[in-house]
Design a protein that fits this description.
33% of the residues lie in helices and 26% in strands. It is of the alpha/beta class. The structure holds oxa(dethia)-CoA (UT7).
């Protein structure tokens, strides 16, 4: 059986850092409130003229270098983003051009904070079907451009960044001891469209709009969705929660992640957290966290990882990966 194996990871964070105290200078909030309710200390924000595709390219270059492969061997580029440079073409087309990845098929996947898991599932299916051999899957966002900087209930939560992985088609036995992506699960429920959305768009207002969120409603569904999706991928493979070495979750809120760890009976140390220094970078948060932990040498060969995410739509998903 063909398996999609992660052979390289990369990350990029814009230079500019905004602390909670910096935010408290222009919006009615405090470092104490933000830390207590979210675990966030700071976020990175893209510079003027620095686009989502620029962040994506920086992360992708690092992932390619890490995988020690030529860009010409990439035949699929998927960018998970909600903040493309332009309404069209796809951000992936800009990334393809900037990388010179001329042999690739390039397109975007838009599932907000679940975007990376969605993109990974799509790339995995291309590889299993034999339609791609080597894929770049990138999560990249400049969410700062969607924020209403006067709305304290949203502007303190998000940050900019990008993360990338290179997937390579390899042969496996079709058993859970194979390396690579072992299972994916995706879900959506459009009944919650209004709980987390942007109040603008090309077809509605002709403007970009700003993030609007019913935080309590999102919070309530997040834990159930993240736990449910993780259990689903375990069920598909016959593996158990105690087999998991690392959870690489979407980084929305430390309280959500603690609750997920508790419900899955996972020790806090195995739940990777970057929300304190990245904030919520939407589709970029999982690959950023993955690349940071990988660079620190935390993952050992054959360890079992679960990535899980939940966000606007509602959308949610999980991927089970043997390193
Ligand atoms: O990535 C996509 C998924 N997104 C998420 O998972 C986000 C999920 N939701 C959350 O993380 C939390 O709901 C928030 C962090 C957004 C909010 O935390 P909360 O504990 O649910 O607070 P709340 O919305 O119930 O607000 C509590 C109070 C309110 O004041 P009153 O009405 O009790 O007087 C808010 O006005 O906190 C106030 N508040 C703030 N105070 C200081 C809201 N934002 C702020 C702020 N600084 N930034």
């Amino acid at each position: 059986m063909r398996r999609a194996c992660i052979i390289g990871t990369g990350a990029y964070l814009p230079e500019k850092v905004i602390s909670n105290d910096d935010l408290a200078k222009f919006v009615d909030t405090s470092d104490e409130w933000i830390r207590e309710r979210t675990g966030i200390r700071q976020r990175h924000v893209a510079a003027e003229g620095e686009f989502t595709s620029d962040l994506a390219v920086a992360a992708a270059k690092q992932a390619l270098q890490h995988a020690a492969i030529e860009v010409g061997s990439i035949d699929l580029i998927i960018v998970a983003t909600t903040t493309p440079d332009h309404t069209f073409p796809a951000c992936a087309a800009a990334v393809q051009r900037k990388l010179g990845a001329d042999s690739a098929v390039a397109f975007d996947v838009q599932a907000v904070c679940s975007g990376f898991v969605y993109a990974l599932a799509v790339a995995n299916n291309f590889i299993i079907a034999g339609q791609a051999h080597r894929a770049l899957v990138i999560g990249s966002e400049t969410f700062s451009r969607l924020l209403d900087w006067n709305d304290r209930s949203t502007c303190v939560l998000f940050g900019d960044g990008a993360g990338a992985v290179v997937l390579n088609a390899e042969d496996g036995d079709g058993t859970p001891s194979d390396r690579g992506i072992l299972a994916t699960h995706l879900g959506s429920d459009g009944r919650h469209y209004d709980a987390l959305f942007v109040d603008g768009g090309p077809s509605s207002t002709g403007t970009t709009g700003h993030v609007r969120m019913n935080g309590r409603e999102v919070f309530r569904h997040a834990v159930t969705a993240l736990v449910g999706a993780s259990e689903e991928v375990l069920k598909q493979t016959g593996l158990q929660a105690q087999d998991i070495d690392w959870v690489v979750p979407h980084q929305a809120n430390a309280r959500i992640l603690n609750a997920v760890a508790q419900r899955l009976h996972i020790d806090d140390e195995r739940m990777l957290m970057t929300v304190d220094h990245h904030a919520n970078t939407s589709a970029a948060s999982i690959p950023l966290t993955l690349a940071e932990a990988d660079a620190a040498g935390r993952f050992k060969r054959d360890q079992l990882l679960v990535m899980n995410a939940m966000g606007g739509g509602f959308s949610w998903g999980a991927a089970l990966v043997r390193w």
